[in-house]
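FW: tagging you since you asked about this chain on Friday. Here's the raw sequence from the shared folder, copied in full. Didn't touch anything.
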Amino acid sequence: MTLRLASFGMRGYVGQSLTIRTVMDFASAFGTFIDGGRVLLARDSRSSSPMLHAAVTASLIGCGCDVLDLGICPTPMLQFSIKPLKAAGGVSITGGHHAMGWNSISLIGSDGAFIEPVGGETVLDIYHAGDFLRQRASGVGSVTEINGFEQEYFAALSRHIDADAIRRAGLTVLIDPLGGAGCPYLPTFARELGFNLIGINDQLSGYLPREAEPRPRSALQMASFIRHVHGHAGFVLSSEMGRMSMVTEAGEPASEEYTFAVIADHVLRRQPGGVVVTNCCTTRTIDDIAARHGSHVVKTPVGQAYIISALEDESGIIGGEGSGSAILPAFNRGFDGFLMMALVLEAMAVRGQSLSGLIKALPRYHIVKKSIACGSRKGYGAIEAIKSRLDAFGRIEGTDLTDGFRINWTDGWLHARASHTEQIVRVISEAAEREVAEHRADMMLRMIGASI
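HL: got it, structure written out here
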């Protein structure tokens, strides 16, 4: 398993690529970058997270950082707390949407967003050089456990949405946080918005009770009984509360692509004409929704850091990705599962519609997501090779090289890129007809397989 390094963090398989030494050096590089400033630290519930938490803590205080320890805390809640607690940055330890054995160290800047690319590259330079701040005994930092930080977060969330409308709707909501960092905060969330909570996999666990990535197949457990408990909506989340898929009251597990689409449609109804930011391989539904509300779409490479950067540059009002993520920079500067759930419930309450009704009102396409195992070097090489063979796909309307490459047709598109977080090449195909989307995806996989 290869260690994956990016400007906003590192991730890998614990004990193989992600070792205590690499984690300590990376944390020391971040502590050096912020010149021994105050740091917020949080982790999820994975069995490896306490070990990594100890390594990061020791490294940061060794650089002179005062660590404010939030304990088990979702990444977006840490991001929100950066400014109120006047921190120079934050570190979140979480495997997120990755499978058992994986974990990661994510770096947050002083603005609450994933550290911007230029700063992240500086951290990587310090990491590779091994030139860290090393304080003597009199200059080491301190560790303070912080409690009650979630109260300000939920109070702000309630002010940001129409909480009264949600309370009046009398909703029953099923939530599956994967036994992760969101578990301790679900009761407070439910009380704040006044809905009846039915928790699934809502006890903290070092093991993953289902597939980590929110998508229809990881929502099958919830879908099997939501009708029997008269649930109005179901939400399936990643362990750091940054990704989400939905289950309708009829028991339909919706594609994770519809999470951002439902939220964007709701937000743009209130603020038409605003700029929407998404990546280059999110469903065309977003483009159609934006056009419906007189809004402009800006496309970025895949990744939360790129979305945040573009939102700031373009003064965007909402951003998100087809992996099941959305962000409102006016509230928080990260993909936020609690905010996403609240906005979907608000849309249902304000418009008086069921979740299935909200989804059916959207322009809908057929999207196919596949992958092929491949190391980074071979993956990038295969993609470069295929760029010169696009005539195999017949007449195309155009290409986009924002991240990997995307082929556009009138009736759909096809995108291929080497994953930033896994040893795979991802292929996504969308079309008006499922058979067409499947055919194009399979054709691309065969071409990549022949090139590696």
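FW: The radius of gyration is 22 Å.
HL: agreed, and The first strand starts at residue 4 and ends at 6.
FW: great, closing this out.
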